[in-house]
Description:
With 190 residues, the chain is an alpha+beta fold.
Amino acid sequence: MLGYTEAEIPNHFQEWKQRLHPDDSDACGERSYRVLTTFRQYFEGQLSTYEQEYCLQHHNGNYLWVLCRGILLRDVGNKPYRMAGCHTDITRRKQAEEELQCYPQPVNAVQVAIEKFELGFVSNDLPQLLNSIRFGSERIRNIVSSLRNSSRLDKAEIKPVDIHEGIENTLLILQHRLQSNSHKAKFDIT
């Protein structure tokens, strides 16, 4: 991934540190503080996992963004003797993230399309739509319950029915329907 052969890079911490981007290795930079501090914390056992993103120098001199995941191997005396893990090239992802930062506002064509599409009706009608949905689902639940009860009439005892409640429910349904079509006709159901 970095273009080096195994013979070109000795397996030492300083070799890794030497290939860090100056922003990641310079003791003054914010990223460097994070990269080196996180590594030190993991090395000292303060962190249970090691995973970081930083830049490493390619053999050609360019820098690649790398996702580094690793584990520290310890001997029987719990002394670290080797770091094992993997590097994943995330340069394209980082470039895409950087490009997105350059465009905090939508492109003009998208902005114009958004402005043409009016969403005002949603904010005005949303409470009424939600109430209609709530009322409709309650009504469906009642109808299903009534159907279940009527399908078991032969298995259960006959119960008295309040006809006034049935009429009130019917009037309530009609009132709701008429109110939703209030622009067509005005009725007062009492």
